[in-house]
Amino acid sequence: MAKIQISLCVVCLVCSLILNLLLVSNHMHVGGKWELSWSRKAAEEGEAAAAVACSGHGRAYLDGLVVDGSPVCECNSCFEGPDCSQFSPDCIANVDGGDPLFLEPFWMQNAARSAMLVAGWHRMSYAFNNQSLMSQVLENQIRKLHTAVGNAVTQGRFIVFGTGSTQLLNAAVYALSPDNSSAPAKVVASFPFYPVYQLQTDFFRSKDFQFQGDAYLWENNSDSTSNLIEFVTAPNNPDGQLNKAVLHGPYVKAIHDHAYYWPHFTGIPAPADEDVMVFTLSKLTGHAGTRFGWALIKDEAVYQRMSTYVKLNCLGISRDAQLRAYKLLKVVMEGSGREIFEFGHATMKNRWEKLSSALSVSKRFSLQDIAPQYCTFFQTVRAASPAYAWLRCEREEDKDCYRALKKAGIIGREGTLFGTASSYVRLSLIKTQDDFDMLLHQIKKLVAEEDDMHARSTM
Amino acid sequence: MAKIQISLCVVCLVCSLILNLLLVSNHMHVGGKWELSWSRKAAEEGEAAAAVACSGHGRAYLDGLVVDGSPVCECNSCFEGPDCSQFSPDCIANVDGGDPLFLEPFWMQNAARSAMLVAGWHRMSYAFNNQSLMSQVLENQIRKLHTAVGNAVTQGRFIVFGTGSTQLLNAAVYALSPDNSSAPAKVVASFPFYPVYQLQTDFFRSKDFQFQGDAYLWENNSDSTSNLIEFVTAPNNPDGQLNKAVLHGPYVKAIHDHAYYWPHFTGIPAPADEDVMVFTLSKLTGHAGTRFGWALIKDEAVYQRMSTYVKLNCLGISRDAQLRAYKLLKVVMEGSGREIFEFGHATMKNRWEKLSSALSVSKRFSLQDIAPQYCTFFQTVRAASPAYAWLRCEREEDKDCYRALKKAGIIGREGTLFGTASSYVRLSLIKTQDDFDMLLHQIKKLVAEEDDMHARSTM
């Protein structure tokens, strides 16, 4: 009896000791090299917001509206309900804007690498320690990235940060305009063009520059002493073409907008090597909301003027945005430095193929042609993967293409806004998968109706 | 024997079980309600950066330069070395800029409440869920704060966010200028005035406005159909006075810059109730680097034009800056909602008293008078605590006051930049304690020399 008692006791003791060992090792493992103190609450709040279940059709944010102590799901278009699980059957495919949410899943998959903990006293000062308004480590990271991707020459270039590329586009126009000249510089872009160029230039009503429309109209202009500033967009927004400057001459300056010059959207034939090149985090990592862009500038005087613009406009770029950009770009460069581009290209190529295939049988709609391009980054000729479909309505009765699509439950962006005919509409392919799926669904329905109509008319 | 064995075994078992219990409870306690997963690495990195020892004269940041795997200390002025422990004896007191680092210790003391964990996919979109570029919860927080502090009326006011107040000052000038008028609006400010008003207005060279100097020059101007825009700064930068508008009339608009209208710097006699009021996070929480400001606007058309300015200028304010502002303002409002103001006022009052006392015996230098003010927030008449000392050199030979101070190891900001005589210099009192201590040290030395000179001259 006593023996049994002893045996039982020993078994219990051994079990208990094993449990102790497990708990101690687990405790040490959980503790890692660092026992968290003041950051723990923030980390818990961050994980709690991320853990709110939104059915894969939305997400809850740390600074979302709070109901019952928990941030609410913010649902993708066409989904609603507290957990975004309810599909709205009469939903419209809204593919108007350029929200680059196609990259959101990449960051969700890389949660641990991309999270950051911001202390309450993080960089309160106006300036960094070297009295600059710009983070030196971020600038270094940007130079490394361009070298790794091979999409821009950074040697001998100055860098200016901007609140998105939006601010830098206008800063560049200011910097390239003649000082106190009697005639304002003429700002042009080859059509179709990104509407913000004109909207900005018109709105700020400077004495020094004026929007003058299509670059091609000035190609053979005899007035060769006019100061001209040409926006050159490559790949172009809306049509994805790798535009080159139309205008040349001693009084011509160009602003090269390379927002989309990343392997997600185009082959990279060679590093861009122009005098003024503008890039943005938005179309690289997908963080449009962070509002961070940069310009690579050859000429020191232009760099100085752009820096002055940013300084007098807003005293530099938010240090929080700079910290975020730094963290994200570090993740982009980790590992092989190819992951995000492989993800981005695969996603965009897949969408373009699906849309092209759905429209291939249509006589009513056509898409832009995008030539296959050798990509020095992927070291292969690669299939098209543009950010936008530049759709044309081919029929006379669909002359107002935007309206025709709207009737069919698709909101695009009117071609007229890009300076071209109303028979064109831009469809965004870079939004969420839900947005793209809805677009594809509506397009397929439209094309099917076309067949029906054709069938009826030949009966 | 068996009994002893059993007893021993039971004792061991009980001990082991107690240890089990302790470990489990400790494990649960450490884990809190949440077992951290993907946020742990970020939290550890954040704490590791904060734990770098910088002797109380500097701090290391998450995005600082890295040496041996650890971010380096960024030292306050006058301190150097890897841990900022070496005082530079020949150091100059640099009190030129308006870096509000006097509040840094407040945030270090409130580390757990003010930390935040940002997920890699946090708010990637251009817009919030309601299609606005502005966070609704942040806007609500701002309204609550003004009501709690009693420094501005927010009822019936629109709110526009800006990249610091800097951007909003210029946005307001645009919004208040007449559209397509033949004569540009005249932009004025009563002297001494914050130099950015002029620098911005001159730099952006709009057809619609022009800087025209001192508001007082237009007080009795017969040309009463001129459009006038007056910057009214209360408390004023540089001299801390609660300025009122100088100009009135049907063609006069005012932009009320209330950057310093917080209990740190002034008594709050009543809520500000003007048509266009501009505020900034910088002088409220001390986060100049976040670049976040807001304007309270009465007129819807003005609000719309300011919103358009921000939209075309930079597509709204960084979501990272908005998240940070939201988090910080939540901490400001926690508890009694008085902590930060008590801290801020105590610090600034202490500095002002020390400086005033050091200069009280001087015949060479004088400070501005600041009338005691009843403060509705603290519900008492409170001692002066201005952000800047507006120092006057009284002697003819010190007419270039900036130079006289520089010779004595003090860098201020020249009075001429504020539109007044060179016998004035602005000294910043809102920088780090090290900066203030250095200023006080140099001032005391100067005043002591004055006594010596006086003693010599009367010998």
UniProtKB/TrEMBL annotation, chains A, B:
Give the residue range of the signal peptide: 1-16
Check the record and name the InterPro entries matching this protein: Alliinase_C (IPR006948), Alliinase_N_sf (IPR037029), EGF_alliinase (IPR006947), Ethylene_sulfur-biosynth (IPR050478), PyrdxlP-dep_Trfase (IPR015424), PyrdxlP-dep_Trfase_major (IPR015421), PyrdxlP-dep_Trfase_small (IPR015422)
* Organism of this sequence: Vitis vinifera (Grape)
**SUPFAM superfamilies cross-referenced by the UniProt entry:** PLP-dependent transferases
List the protein's name. Answer: Tryptophan aminotransferase-related protein 4
CDD domains assigned: AAT_like
| The keyword Transferase belongs to this UniProt entry's keyword annotation | yes
Q: Where is the Alliinase C-terminal domain?
A: 93-447
The UniProt similarity line reads: Belongs to the alliinase family.
For this protein, the record's Gene3D superfamilies field holds:
Aspartate Aminotransferase, domain 1 (3.90.1150.10), EGF-like, alliinase (2.10.25.30), Type I PLP-dependent aspartate aminotransferase-like (Major domain) (3.40.640.10)
Q: What cofactor does this protein call for?
A: pyridoxal 5'-phosphate
* A GO molecular function held by the record: transaminase activity
